[in-house]
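## Example pair
The file below holds two records. Each record gives the amino-acid sequence first, followed by its structure token line.
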Amino acid sequence: MSRIYKILPRAAWTAAHEAGYFEGSPLDVSDGFIHFSTAAQAQETARRHFAGQSDLVVLELEADDLGEALRWEPSRGGDLFPHLYGALAVALVRYVTEAPLDAAGVPALGALL
């Protein structure tokens, strides 16, 4: 089993939950896929893209549940990142956890992953 993670504002998750699917953040839509991170990548993703943002949640999914729409592609530093080409069915989300901010204003994910 390979768990992957998506950080997003609670309001985006609430809207997705009500709709039954998540089509991605503005960056995801622009890039043509939904960005995910592995546990090892998530804290750096939080630091780079979510510092100073509050009211965030972390979605946890099983990568295999996403089928062929999930591709592992090189990104930051040549690491392979999980990218979902298509909408995310909210029923596939295993856990949703609040992402508290640390003293520097960065989501503190260490205890969540």
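Second record, same layout:
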Amino acid sequence: MSEKDMLNMKKWAVVGATNDTTKFGYKIYKKLKDHGYIVYPISVKYDEVDGDKAYRELKDLPEKVDVVDFVVNPRIGLSIVKQCADLDIKNIWLQPGTVSEEILQFANNSSIEVVEGCVLVSLS
């Protein structure tokens, strides 16, 4: 799947969303929101991100998302991609620094589409 195809999907979750405006977890979340996407913040640290209710895990979301954007260390990312498989979420976006062989291999074996790149650049 192309980057463009994934960007055409409108329901996203950002894993690693934060209220720290200097961090990518905030910038990506905000950019998606500002571009009209339905975006859910996934955070173990915050109850709210940018004034929106944050969720601890993907299974806690009120609806199934089309794409999960990873803004977390690959060690954490592996458990997230496994959650995606369990929830039948078929698209993940791996920001720079979030990629590992294990994540790519698991995604491939689970028929999960992967885009590697920066959402901020793609939406600019």
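Notes on the second record: The longest helix spans residues 74-86. Residues 55 and 116 are 24 Å apart (CA to CA).
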